Amino acid sequence: MRAGDEAGGGLPVSVRPRPLVDAFAVKIDEWVDRSRGRIRADVAHQRLVAMGYRGSERATRRAVAEAKRCWRAEHGVLTRLKHDPATRAYAARRASEGKTPREIKRCLKRYVARRLFRTLEAIGPHPLKERPSRSRVIGHCS
């Protein structure tokens, strides 16, 4: 097997091409930021086509959805910092430890993720996830 691969007889490794929308990702991020996460994918696709984009609408929808997820992850923490007293106290405590504002936001994102995980863990597993095991009989048993 190895000798065949070395002689060039192995199967070619398939490389998946990058989506065409990757070249326009910076522009999509800009539109999502400017619209505060509210731009629709069909509107973004029309703008991209006007700029010379030749990819599919599906790829655009996926790229816009990813950009929105990133935008919401970043800006959800900023909203908490402005309005939630417990979050402001947490940020003040981190600032007193000498953390920069960027580090405080990073710590806050991790704090929110840990708290959400604990809450979901306390609720327990989803009722649809626990299905009773089915015993299947294959063939005829006597």
General description of the model:
The chain is an all-alpha fold. Among the domains are: 18-72; 84-122. 61% of the residues lie in helices and 0% in strands. The protein has helices spanning 2-6, 25-34, 41-50, 57-83, 85-96, 101-123. The radius of gyration is 25 Å and the shape is extended. The two termini are 47 Å apart.
Mean pLDDT: 79
Our measurement of the CA-to-CA distance between the termini, rounded to an integer number of angstroms, reads: 47 Å
Strand content: under 5%
Q: Structural class of the helices, strands and pairings?
A: mainly alpha
Biggest beta sheet attributes: none
Low-confidence stretches: none
Give the tally of β-strands.
0
What tags apply to this protein structure?
142 residues; mainly alpha; 0% strand
Summarize the entry for a quick read.
By secondary structure, this protein is mainly alpha-helical.
Write the layout of secondary structure elements.
Blueprint: H1 2-6, H2 25-34, H3 41-50, H4 57-83, H5 85-96, H6 101-123
